[in-house]
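In this section we turn from sequence analysis to structure. A common task in structural bioinformatics is to predict how a protein folds when a small molecule is present, because the ligand can shape the pocket around it. The inputs are simple: the amino acid sequence and a SMILES string for the ligand, here NDP. Study the lines below before reading on.
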Amino acid sequence: MPHDYRSPEPDDPPASSAPLATAQHQLARAVEILSYDEGLHEVLATPRREMRVAVPLRRDDGRVQVFTGYRVQHNISRGPGKGGLRYAPGVDIDEVRALAMWMTWKCAVVDVPYGGAKGGVTIDPHAHSAAELERVTRRYTSEIMPMIGPERDIMAPDIGTDERTMAWVMDTYSVNRGFTIPAVTTGKPLAVGGSLGRPTATSQGVVHTARAALRADGVELAEVSAAVQGFGKVGSHAARLLHEAGTRVVAVSDQYGGVQRADGLDVPALLEHVAGTGTVTGFGDADAVSNTDLLALDVDVLVPAAVEGVIDGDTAGRVKARWVVEGANGPTTSEGDRVLAERGVVVVPDILANAGGVVVSYFEWVQANQAYWWTEQEIAERLEQRMLASHASVSALARAESVTLREAALTIGVRRVAEAHQIRGLYP
Ligand SMILES: NC(=O)C1=CN([C@@H]2O[C@H](COP(=O)(O)OP(=O)(O)OC[C@H]3O[C@@H](n4cnc5c(N)ncnc54)[C@H](OP(=O)(O)O)[C@@H]3O)[C@@H](O)[C@H]2O)C=CC1
Ligand SMILES: O=C(O)CCC(=O)C(=O)O
């Protein structure tokens, strides 16, 4: 009996707040809005290909440990799989399935010619040396070789991985094939075919969509305060760009906790502190705040940019922000979403708000395939144009159909993927 990936109850939030339950519930709601039948629902819900691999590692001290890695291609009807690679202790197959499904709708919402994929290794990157992480990355890449490639499935950084990881993946793949193939990963260093603008693209997209959402209510970024949860690749640049836009950034956090200052943090000084200590905690001239309390601060804009499921039903009841702009994937559970909507909080959903990363990844892949690189200005302009156009279509649909921005974004994404299935004839 095959596993059923559908969520049966589009109207009621699922009992589980796990990422896959949230992703399945969101799909079920879009299927309901689009009046699709059960067969098409099943096609859209079911991951196309999955691989689970053992990743043995010889530690620096000579011991051997075996980790588990995954790659899931949720849907490849619109093009090759696309999505990040996550290194975190909590990675499991269901989390990777959820993240891959969100990639499918995200790529369709911003209309890049990709399907959705995601990978992960169940490992704490903080507990390993760079040499160990390189060996893990090379072994993981070798194991999933049959699934990846510039025309099959293209990786990018996610939690716990970075541009160096992407260089190792690219090198391992290229060495196995016998020549250099930069387009197998995106988010690479510039020296090996990366793109200008990719390191800040996700955060830039968050700021573009935040600005657009506020302007819809006649408000400017320079008039508001914000709190940002997560201070990694997405959160740190989001805080900096918001600060540069004149927003009073009053709190930020990482996995060790957060810092807050009511009249605004000195974000450039905070970035220097983090470069020196590896954490936002202990930053002078600011008070400590926990990750949970940060979500309930009296701010205008909340940017969750860390992990899934942090805004559940309880937390959502305590959110004071008027806008939640989802830098992270799946930060809001279905119950959290229901509570926020009931309370009139505008949620700019992950598959739109954080899509700037995959947009510039697409630009990087196009540049690598053509071996011709664009200027920073060209990339910045094309990113802004695509983010604003995508935001405009999502908000127009939300207004026309009286649905939330998330429901509108999912409807657009799911419809584009379903159309590809129908036109290709994969679905009768
Ligand atoms: N990188 C990208 O281009 C994109 C990323 N995303 C999503 O954005 C989110 C962040 O990714 P990214 O910035 O790349 O990852 P990073 O690994 O660079 O940063 C993650 C940040 O979250 C913090 N963190 C980890 N666990 C927790 C926790 N339990 N509570 C609070 N903070 C925590 C980390 O703290 P510490 O530094 O202390 O470990 C770090 O500051 C993820 O949901 C990812 O899927 C979405 C689109 C694109
Ligand atoms: O840049 C990419 O290809 C994908 C980044 C990613 O993993 C995401 O958007 O969640």
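The mean pLDDT is 96. As an exercise, try to locate the residues that line the NDP site and compare them with your own expectations.
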